Amino acid sequence: MRSTFLWRNRVLLTSGVLLILSLHLISTGVHPGDLAARPESAFLEVISPVTGAFTHLSDGASSITRDYVDLVHVRDENARLRIELARVKSDQARLAELEVENRHLGELLELKDALGTNALAANVIGSDANGISRTLILASGSDNGLRPGMAVLANQGVVGKIIAVSPNASRVLLINDHNSALDGFDQRTRARGIVAGLVDDGVILKYADRSQDIRTGDTIVTSGLDGIFPRGLLVGTIANVRRDGAGLFLGVKIAPAVDFRQLEQVLILTQPPPHLDDQAKD
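RE: above sequence
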């Protein structure tokens, strides 16, 4: 009958024994050498490598994340620095260009003061594209007081004359165009002729008499007799004198003082030059 009682109450009795054992372990503690500590030690032994590996992977992932974030920041900073460097270079180029333009304009103003006449500076914004006509386009026109027939100069010498205007632009016929002509003379010998352009490029001094003493290297200047250019403006120098062949005149080639392809600003004389009689009176 006793065994029957124990069997019927086996669950309750087992639970009671386990509860008493648990209370005993809690009250007395578990020592490293106790049997109760052995399962926990075995469990720790099993999970320790797994925990270490997980910790290593976690640290590695954190390191990779930090490195990636740092690389992104470095890339963004490099991009910002490249943009800033490009802006600085652009500003430097603009400042350098402004300095060049100011220097050119200052030289033109000095030329204006030396001539003692009314004049206007203008920017060159284009040139004729074909190989026959040689002209320039200026960013100033009738609204600025310009009109056809006005003389156009550069710091180096004579450029040409205005042949057409619109309210905000003008066309300049260069002295090396085959339709151009101005009165000039040899500054050394006073031999006169007509400075004209050639169809196949170049500038010559037409109608220079064979009896005249004209030599390579002589300076050609404006005479003032054409009513467009003041007297004494530099046209160019004699590059070649050809005396052979028939005819009354020399073959005189002129090297223009101005490089027309390099022009950026020019000076337009807005009033006609004084008459030679007036100059003589002065």
